[in-house]
């Protein structure tokens, strides 16, 4: 299957993308991974992207699209792929449509992870990171440390990242509503959108997603 994964920050896209890609036996293609791979390998696209990033500028859509198209053309993506974090806006979605049409490839579904804003804020703003080892992550509600402000694993100080503050989270949500959410309407016009709730345990959301994707594939014949 060829799938685009959409959802606001805090919906669990990264986690679900990994599980879904494994269950569907397709590569998980994220924008971040594309940039890192091209830059580390020193490709022409990687060098171009790095020049923009080093200057503090956004990487142009055409560079991102070229990277995605190159990745989707690799052998392991011949039977499908899962795009995570791309397309990020309607112009990228339209460019992706053209690129896929040129390659005689069609998307099977756009999986929309739906979650209330207040839950997004609760999930992200509740995170606490260990200053000693950032791999040690806790949550004030879901996974609180035994002692407030202290890492259970190494005793380091737990803190809230600036990116995880409620104010920052709400700004990120505004950006999502303004820039990314409109792609859902773009794909609804093509009959591709499948919406599921992102609430519940990770396994429950994955099962929900797999069932929805299977229905979408059956509906397309």
TrEMBL record:
Pathway: Purine metabolism; AMP biosynthesis via salvage pathway; AMP from ADP: step 1/1. It holds the Pfam family ADK. The keyword Cytoplasm applies. Its EC number is 2.7.4.3. ATP binds at residues 10-15, 127, 137-138, 200. One of its GO terms (biological process) is AMP salvage. AMP binds at residues 31, 36, 57-59, 85-88, 92, 161, 172. One of its GO terms (cellular component) is cytoplasm. InterPro entries: Adenyl_kin_sub, Adenylat/UMP-CMP_kin, Adenylat_kinase_CS, Adenylate_kinase_lid-dom, ADK_active_lid_dom_sf, P-loop_NTPase. GO terms for molecular function: AMP kinase activity; ATP binding. Its main location: cytoplasm. Keywords: ATP-binding, Cytoplasm, Kinase, Nucleotide biosynthesis, Nucleotide-binding, Transferase. Residues 127-163 form the Adenylate kinase active site lid domain. It is found in: Cytoplasm. Consists of three domains, a large central CORE domain and two small peripheral domains, NMPbind and LID, which undergo movements during catalysis. The LID domain closes over the site of phosphoryl transfer upon ATP binding. Assembling and dissambling the active center during each catalytic cycle provides an effective means to prevent ATP hydrolysis. PANTHER family: NUCLEOTIDE KINASE. HAMAP family: Adenylate_kinase_Adk (MF_00235). This is Adenylate kinase. It comes from Streptomyces liangshanensis. The gene is adk.
């Amino acid at each position: 299957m060829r799938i685009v994964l959409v959802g606001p920050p805090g919906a669990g896209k990264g986690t679900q993308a990994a599980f879904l890609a494994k269950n569907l036996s397709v590569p998980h293609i994220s924008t971040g991974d594309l940039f890192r791979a091209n830059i580390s390998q020193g490709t022409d696209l990687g060098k171009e992207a790095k020049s923009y990033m080093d200057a503090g500028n956004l990487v142009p859509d055409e560079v991102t699209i070229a990277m995605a198209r190159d990745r989707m053309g690799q052998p392991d993506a011949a039977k499908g792929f899962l795009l995570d974090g791309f397309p990020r806006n309607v112009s990228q979605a339209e460019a992706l449509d053209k690129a896929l049409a040129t390659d005689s490839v069609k998307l099977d579904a756009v999986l929309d992870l739906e979650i209330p804003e207040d839950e997004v804020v609760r999930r992200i703003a509740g995170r606490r990171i260990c200053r000693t080892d950032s791999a040690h992550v806790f949550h004030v509600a879901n996974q609180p440390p035994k002692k407030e402000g202290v890492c259970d694993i190494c005793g380091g100080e737990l803190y809230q990242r600036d990116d995880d503050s409620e104010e920052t989270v709400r700004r990120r949500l505004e950006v999502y509503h303004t820039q990314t959410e409109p792609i859902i309407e773009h794909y609804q016009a093509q009959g591709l959108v499948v919406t599921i709730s992102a609430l519940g345990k990770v396994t429950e959301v994955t099962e929900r997603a797999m069932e929805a994707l299977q229905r979408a594939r059956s509906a397309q014949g």
